[in-house]
């Protein structure tokens, strides 16, 4: 089953905040919560195998500890191209997993081509997490339930799940808003 981050009959994926990262990989926590220096509270972000190889599908381990209560982003590769805005249409390769057990619920890599969609048509955590990202980059997004699918089950995603994505920004189209 393909779980594309969109609203419609179900729920949309809307990815991360308009944060423009211009340096080495950094971890940010959106919103002003108290967090550890790495932005994750008492949790440890999942390990990403193949983090720097944009030509291959990465794998994501399960999270450790209590999942972050706010959106967390970490650039694994900082891009150098066009910057995504919250209303951009983007082309991305991604892998989505559950924080609790690392189980993959969707991956554009498995379909052999990037997914293309407007960021204002996806879950808030996806929109906020990709906004500010530069083309050619790879970013980890940790999305709390409130910015994902909330308390409702969504196909292979149990209600109340914290989601973990590794997203490669392949391209950005201008917004028509």
From TrEMBL:
Pfam families noted in UniProt: FKBP_C
EC numbers for this chain: 5.2.1.8
Signal peptide, first to last residue: 1-29
Alphabetically ordered keywords of this record: Isomerase, Rotamase, Signal
GO MF, any single term: peptidyl-prolyl cis-trans isomerase activity
PPIase FKBP-type domain mapped to chain residues: 87-173
Top-level taxon in the UniProt lineage: Bacteria
Family label: Belongs to the FKBP-type PPIase family.
Protein's UniProt name: Peptidyl-prolyl cis-trans isomerase
Source organism: Candidatus Protofrankia datiscae
